[in-house]
Amino acid sequence: MPIPATPELKIQIPDSQAIARRLSAVVQVPTISYEDRTLTEPFLELHRLLEQQYPRVHQTLQREKINELSLLYTWPGSQPELPGVAFLAHQDVVPVIGDQANWTHPAFSGAIEAGYVWGRGSIDMKSQLVAVLEAAETLLAAGFQPKRTIYLAFGHDEETGGKQGAHAISAVLQARGVHFAALMDEGGAVSGGVAPGIDGLIATVAYAEKAYANITLEVKARAGHASTPFKTSSIAILSRAITRIQQNPMPASLEFARPTIQALLPYLPLPFRLFFSQLWLTGPLVKLVLAEEPFSNALLRNTIAPTILQSGYKFNVLPEKASAGFNCRLLPGRPLQELLDHFRKVIRDERVSITCVDTSAPSLKPVSLDTPFYHAMETNIRSLFGQIPICPLVMFGSSDSRHYENICSSIYRFEALRFNKPEDDLTHGVDERVEIAQLPAMVDFNLRMMQSWACL
């Protein structure tokens, strides 16, 4: 579907070094999300910085602060009766764990060196935050008037669940009767080396995301002296339960892998194409093959990962209690009860208590890809990256966008970032950095998306 024509605008995208300098300043503000506290001053400092760097946005758009630290910008459209469109990013970053001596540049230096902007949040996701604001500032300078109202929503606690940020913004908008025609958030990207048989780049657009659940197993048993051990112990019982869970993954299904496979089929070499095109025949074998790799395995099933183990305090004491924590990711629409039933069925031991200590609401089924908004996204991706494969994907992590499912039925998750190989993505890692040469394309993509979506 062609993108609707808009009046000819004289658009001048800022050069890469100018964008890099502004991104560097944003990275230097340590807007860290902590599980147990919120340091407000860094976020307020970031707000002041954004006002300075993007004067047209702050003079023209209405800015609101939700729960003091989250930002909501409203750019009124010429036809306010139409549902608006939204562009999301989050202000917060994850903490830096361990000694920063392992970093080439300090984590919040925002160093500009060797063709990169270095620092925590440079990928996740201050580069997107800056790209959205750069795009809006550029369009305002060119005199662009959207037909649909454009919303920019920047939560402050995505890394810890988004309940005070995105969830609160969504609640405010819902109370006002606002409904979005489409929404774009983080999720997919342009990557190389992610599909067997395809050497070039692939654009992945996340059209759904998994829900999460944190499960705790706990065992209480008789304590005692280690010199005269009992036949069993809390640690032994718990270890057996963990082993059973690890050896018995939840059932695999091709339901959410099928759309991804179908989108990639035309680009696969002939042997791969034959293998993946006959799923009615090869389905069982395809599941076995995909289950061998962590990424494709996560597309097939609810995943269960042990992440916390606690017990004991002294070498010569048999501990009374042992516990383990699991982070689980549920396929769209799958209920929490199905996961809990699996734990009970596999462990088969009443001495092990099973508790869900935290969960997100079950995420909705994937959104439709047959919409003018998705087709516009495809057009804009290919206008920047060429005729590369574009495939839908279920996002394994969580994003702020799930909090907007009640007011938007067309949520697409994609950033115009390119990773030539999977290890280039240093999200949450040591030496997180973004390539300066990519910044203008990120701005260009968001600019095109604002123009096309707001004029549909």
What is the name of the CATH architecture of the largest domain? Answer: 3-Layer(aba) Sandwich
CATH first level of the largest domain: Alpha Beta
Rounded to an integer in angstroms, the radius of gyration calculated over CA atoms is: 24 Å
Strand content: 15-25%
The secondary-structure element order is HHHEEEEEHEHEEEEHHHHHEEEHEHEEEH
Uncertain runs with pLDDT below 50, 5 residues or more? none
CATH topology of the largest domain, anyone?
Answer: Aminopeptidase
Silhouette: globular
Mean pLDDT metric: 95
What does this structure look like?
There is one protein chain. The chain folds into two domains: 272 residues, Zn peptidases (Aminopeptidase, 3-Layer(aba) Sandwich); 149 residues, 2-Layer Sandwich (Alpha-Beta Plaits). The protein contains 13 helices and 17 strands. The chain starts with 15 loop residues before the first helix and ends with a helix.
Topology diagram in text:
Layout: H1 16-27, H2 40-53, H3 55-60, E1 62-66, E2 70-75, E3 84-90, E4 112-113, E5 116-118, H4 126-142, E6 150-155, H5 166-175, E7 180-192, E8 201-209, E9 211-220, E10 224-225, H6 234-247, H7 258-264, H8 270-277, H9 279-290, H10 294-300, E11 303-311, E12 317-318, E13 321-330, H11 336-347, E14 352-359, H12 372-385, E15 390-395, E16 411-419, E17 433-435, H13 439-454
Parallel strand pairs: 3-6, 3-7, 7-16, 8-15
Antiparallel strand pairs: 1-2, 2-6, 4-5, 5-17, 7-8, 9-13, 9-14, 10-12, 11-13
Helix pairs in contact: 1-4, 4-13, 12-13
